[in-house]
Amino acid sequence: MTTWFTSADCHLEDFRTVVEQQTDKSAFPHATDVVQNVLVYSGDLPDTTEVRAELARALMDGPGIVVFRGAFATDVVDRATDVFAGLIADQKAAGAVGGDHFAKPGANDRVWGALDKFALRDPAAFATYYDNDTLALISAAWLGAGYQVTSQVNVVNPGGQAQVAHRDYHLGFMSADQSSRFPAHVHQLSPVLTLQGAVAHVDMPVETGPTLYLPHSQKYAPGYLAFHQPSFTEYFNAHHEQLPLSKGDAAFFNPALFHGAGTNRSADVRRMANLLQISSAFGRAMETVDRTAMCEALYPTLLAYEGSTATVVAASAEGYAFPTNLDRDQPIGGLAPQTQAELMRQALAERWDPATFTKALHDQANRRSAA
User: Fold this and answer.
1) Which residue, 248, 245, 246, 274, is CA-closest to 87?
2) How far apart are CA 179 and CA 171, in angstroms?
3) Distance separating alpha carbons of residues 112 and 153, to the nearest angstrom
4) Residue 64 in 3-state DSSP?
5) Per the structure, how many domains does the chain have?
6) Domain-located, residue 4
7) What is the Cα–Cα distance from 253 to 214, expressed in whole angstroms?
8) What's the confidence (pLDDT) of residue 101?
9) In the chain, which residue ranges form alpha helices assigned H by DSSP?
10) Residues 131 and 267 placed together within one structural domain of the fold
11) 13 plus 121 within the same structural domain
């Protein structure tokens, strides 16, 4: 068994063996159909252990993606759309231009942190929207109890270009070099910590650019390195599927599935989706730690320290960019904002004086805060 993946482990022929299989509907008896290798379900599945087990198998060992038809009532979606449109209008009036993970900043209309913004702007509409049995069923099937919902609204305007094929959070938000620093078992762990979802807020025929995806690709073990390689991108571009959605449909997928938003070739459809990222309750440390205070206290010592500052920084500073406030701490110029540890290493390498570092440290902390 491979214990550490490298780029040399990525072979297109092995990948093709994984993805060029057909989804067997008989293995998923609660599905109503298989379309373009994707399992399609109705939006009124019963919440039973048997159904949860089937959905978990679909995401892990099946095609890695399921679509629920009519998961959200259209009037409920329209009410939420009005709220999201108001939030976007407020952002534009304030002159905000949103960064993006996989698209040019400003090309699309984004609402980062849409979950709490929605709740604060219209609590009644929020309650009606998230009072959704399908969302609860698929979240519990993949993540179990205690899951945490986040939401980012994405509007791809006419002419908006397709994203490059990628995997998603966590390792999917890293470069190949960054993800290669994690052992193979972490590559296997990362997908089961998150469920990706998208609720269609408008009808999405193919010309509007609904999500491109490659069923079964979540099963390719070194895929977090492979999706960065041009040969895999070319294969995805030639062989991806693209299922049209109707308003109120919801797609959910394993974050390790190779996917990307499509090009909006329509003349007048602003393709709006509520992108749901639902996280496992287990993505938590045991204790709360004031790492900002630690970094501020340690920095003068580390400036004069003769040992390994790298190991001290690793033990004290926050080494991960998320969670953060993506309105203020945007992923411009990369897939993720600068981490606290990266800021501290930069300051030490450039020999910043303590006052300069302290200001930068607290400015970064303020950008990351929810308030």
Assistant:
1) 274
2) 6
3) 7
4) coil
5) 2
6) no
7) 11
8) 46
9) 12-19, 49-60, 74-93, 114-121, 123-130, 133-143, 176-179, 184-189, 223-226, 230-239, 291-303, 309-316, 340-350, 354-368
10) yes
11) yes
Amino acid in position 312: V
For the stretch 77-93, what's the b/e string if a residue is b when 16 or more beta carbons lie within 10 angstroms of its beta carbon? Answer: bebbbebbbebbeebee
Instruction: Read off the pLDDT band of 105 (50, 70, 90).
Output: low
Return the number of other C-beta atoms located less than 10 Å from residue 117's C-beta. Answer: 21
- The whole-angstrom separation of Cα 194 and Cα 281 is 10
Span 6-28, mean pLDDT?
97
Give the 3-state secondary structure of residue 42: strand
2 or 210: whose pLDDT is higher? 210
Q: Which structural domain range is residue 340 located in? A: 291-368
Helix (H, G, I), strand (E, B) or coil at 349: helix
Chain segment 309-346, per-residue pLDDT in tens = 998 998 889 988 999 998 899 886 678 899 999 999 99
Residues paired with residue 277 on neighbouring β-strands, in sequence order: 150, 196
Cα separation values, 214 from 4, 16, 233, 319, 331, Å: 25, 11, 11, 32, 25
Residue 2 lies in a domain: no
**Rounded Cα gap, residues 120 and 128, in angstroms:** 14
The reply to whether 359 and 263 lie within a common domain is: no
Q: Cα–Cα distance between 7 and 245 in angstroms, integer?
A: 35
Residue 285 lies in a domain: no
Q: Is omega for the bond preceding 222 within 30 degrees of 0, making it cis?
A: no
284 close to 226: Cβ distance less than 8 angstroms: no
* Domain shared by 160 and 88, yes or no: yes
Handedness of CA 218, 224, 226, 230 (dihedral sign): positive
